[in-house]
Amino acid sequence: MSDMFLTASSSPHVRSKEDVSIIMRDVVIALLPAFICSIYFFGMKALTLTLVAVLVAVGTEALIQKLMKKPITINDWSAVVTGVLLAFNLPAGAPWWIALIGSVFAIAIVKHAFGGIGQNFMNPALAARAFLLASWPTRMTAAAFTWPGGADAVATATPLELLKGAEGVVGELPSIASLFMGNVAGTIGETSALALIIGGAYLLYRKVITWRIPTIYIGTVAVLTFIFGQDGLFTGNVLYHLFAGGLMLGAFYMATDYSSSPVTPRGQIIYALGCGIITSAIRLWGGYPEGVSYSILLMNVAAPLIDKYTMPKIYGEVKANA
């Protein structure tokens, strides 16, 4: 008689050693190159905004969980990730209280009002950015963008504003090398495409994210912005659209949010295509030079519907009308 015993238990039967804290810690590690670049280019302003956003995000999470008599889970690093991502979406010229209000909104309204981690239907940092942009547009846009290393009072247009030729915006486009390294105006965490790509590669290596969303999202923007260029078909400045603005930050770190993106492979492809199409449409024909935040938020809302129609059929399932 065999010595093997069979144990009957409820699902899940396949377990992984990875948990939320390990995944979130990997995301924080992946964001470190961009964080270092933000301090290098924008100095203490970037450090101050990031510290305020992280501390307020963690504090708000702890306070809400204590008030609701839930286990305090600030050691899972998720609030830290939200704080860092929110700070990365702020211009260096933004005041500290913008980071404070944004962090409270992200954690209290977008995350915990819908049930906490895993229940939020939008990326908290992006939703907070949209809220701040609607509430204090001057402090979140052109007037607050400072040139890296420049004087505190100097505000300048971002590369996407220059590329689009927005009304009242004049200036010379920075070189592709400056754009790739991050020596350009923009929010503190989005300027260095190189640092964001290094962090994204780390997330792919650690299998925290899959290739589908970032690759298809970035690829869609590349194709569409090249086809529909400012000077006619197939004249677009692809490298500018790829390295400028928040495309790399959004594609690797925010569109891939587990809670607000589809879980099925086909759903992730559709979702990423939608992000790329909306981003390109806003940048090419919209009144706003950037489009990453709103494209991801709109596709976040569509994610449950995408999952519904791309979920694989259960083997052996009988149709209701059979």
From TrEMBL:
It is found in: Cell membrane. It comes from Irregularibacter muris. Its EC number is 7.-.-.-. Pfam families: NQR2_RnfD_RnfE. The gene is rnfD. This is Ion-translocating oxidoreductase complex subunit D. GO terms for cellular component: plasma membrane. The complex is composed of six subunits: RnfA, RnfB, RnfC, RnfD, RnfE and RnfG. One of its GO terms (biological process) is electron transport chain. Its cofactor is FMN. Part of a membrane-bound complex that couples electron transfer with translocation of ions across the membrane. The chain crosses the membrane at residues 20-41, 47-64, 71-90, 180-204, 216-233, 239-256, 268-286. Coiled coil: none annotated. InterPro entries: NqrB/RnfD, RnfD_bac. The modification FMN phosphoryl threonine is found at T158. The keyword Cytoplasm does not apply. Keywords: Cell membrane, Electron transport, Flavoprotein, FMN, Membrane, Phosphoprotein, Translocase, Transmembrane, Transmembrane helix, Transport. It is a multi-pass membrane protein. The keyword Cell membrane applies. Belongs to the NqrB/RnfD family.
